[in-house]
Specification:
This protein has 197 residues and is of the alpha/beta class. It folds into two domains: 132 residues, NAD(P)-binding Rossmann-like Domain (Rossmann fold, 3-Layer(aba) Sandwich), CATH 3.40.50; 50 residues, no CATH class. The protein has five helices and five strands. Strands 3-2-1-4-5 form a five-stranded parallel β-sheet, with helices on both faces. The longest helix has 17 residues. The N and C termini lie far apart (39 Å). About 4% of the residues have low confidence. It binds NADP nicotinamide-adenine-dinucleotide phosphate (NAP).
């Protein structure tokens, strides 16, 4: 099927593109910066629609035309999670799309309420608005915390440290989470039952 990945140039978007291509899907990308993509991935795309920002309606219309499904992999900013996703959802509705995977690779926000944890408020609000008013029943993947995030650092393009353990701000190659990375470990404290925001 032809799948649009919005935010394809990000951490999750790049991995989703590679996974889709490996499974024989056609992948269309939407983003502001095609240069962030590995040339091998970029050349394998059905097309890349360049946008100015998340409210670039003409780019959204072009991006959703003729696709079978949308994967939203926008970054975790509040305005992307709410306004950005709603504008993309409305464009998908107008194009008659039924499959829309929302950018919700995060904690199970169904178990909390608005204002419990502000970072989840736009995701809860998006889901509530889509449920009330959209012809699309949005899909969500709730992952909990991705452990790799703990191993990333500011300015690093991937999530994990280099083989020598030194943070590399410009890791070579697209696969900074690949099998050649050094062994990872995580310290766990407490009993596992303490509340943790
Ligand atoms: N569960 C976890 O532990 C965990 C960890 C990481 C991420 N996540 C979730 O996964 C999702 C994707 O995260 P990510 O780390 O892959 O995101 P990311 O790399 O920070 O960003 C994804 C994309 O968002 C696009 N973007 C940013 N600002 C934009 C704007 N103003 N207008 C249009 N597009 C914009 C960028 O594309 P361009 O620059 O090309 O436009 C960027 O490539 C988020 O919902 C995040 O919360 C969850």
């Amino acid at each position: 099927m032809l799948i649009l990945i919005a935010g394809i140039t990000g951490n999750v978007g790049k991995q989703a593109a590679r996974a889709g291509l490996e499974r024989g899907h056609e992948i269309r990308g939407l983003g502001r910066s095609p240069s962030k993509l590995d040339p091998a991935v970029l050349s394998g795309l059905e097309s890349f629609v360049q946008s100015e920002n998340y409210y670039d309606i003409s780019a959204l219309e072009k991006a959703v035309k003729g696709v079978d499904a949308v994967i939203c992999a926008y970054g975790g900013l509040a305005e992307l999670a709410l306004e950005g996703q709603l504008l993309l959802l409305r464009a998908a509705e107008r194009a008659g799309i039924k499959r829309f995977l929302a950018a919700s690779w995060n904690y199970d926000w169904r178990r909390i309420s608005l204002h419990d944890q502000e970072v989840y408020d736009p995701y809860i609000a998006f889901h509530a608005q889509a449920s009330l008013s959209s012809s699309i029943k949005t899909l969500h993947i709730l992952t909990g915390m991705l452990a790799e995030v703990f191993f990333g650092s500011h300015k690093e393009r991937g999530f994990t440290p280099a083989d020598d353990g030194v943070w590399d701000p410009e890791p070579q190659g697209a696969d900074s989470t690949g099998p050649n990375q050094r062994a990872r470990s995580m310290d766990v404290y407490g009993t596992g039952n303490e509340p943790w925001s």
